[in-house]
Amino acid sequence: MYFNAGNMHLNLSSGVSGNVAAEVDTAVYASAAWRPAERLGVGATLKYARLELAETASAAALLYDAGVLYKAGRGFSFGASLMNAGGDFKFEAVGDPPPTVQRLGAAWRVEFTPPNLLDNDADLVYCAAMFTADHIKARDEDAHSQAGFELDMDMAIGVHMAVRAGYLFDRPAEGFVFGFGLADDGWSLDLSFDTGKAMNARQQATLGYRF
Hints:
The chain is an all-beta fold. The protein is built from no helices and 16 strands.
C-alpha cells in the first residue's frame, strides 16, 4: 500500500527551504485465514508500516490484525477483532502508539421465502435482510456502539437493489446514516447520506463498473 499526501513548502530554522512531500506512507502486509471448525473462522494480518513526514522524519512499526467469526446458526453470527496492534512509531526518543481498535459485533441474516410478502405479482426473485450491531473501542477514545440493517433484493430483470440505514451512538459528529444502491452484472451505483451533528451532513455517490 502506498499513500502520498502531496507537496508542501518547507522552511527550516537552518535556512533550508523548498518543496517536499508532506507525508508518504507505505505498508507491506500478509494475511492468512483458517477454519478450524465448520462454524468457526479465524484470521490474522501482519503489517510493516512506515511513515515519512516532510522528508525530514520517519518511523516504522510492525503491526498485526486478528479476528474471529462464529456462525451460530439460524442466520446469527458473532465476531471480534483487534486491529493495528503492535509496536510504537518512534520519530524521536519517545514512541507514539499505533491507532489500535477493538471491535465486537453480532449480526442476524434472514431470507424471505417467497420474497414477495405483500404482492405475489411483484417481480422480486430474492429478498433478504441483515441486522447488525457493533461495539468499538479505539485507543485513547471513548467506546461507542452502532447498529444498522441492510435489505437486499434481486429483481427478475437482473437488477440488484440494496437499502441501508443505521445509527452511530455516542458520536459527536455523526448520527443517522442512510444508503441506497443499484447494480447489474457490470454497473453499480451507490448513494449514501448522513445527518451530521457537530459537522455538516455529508452525501456521497459512487459509480462503479466490474469487468
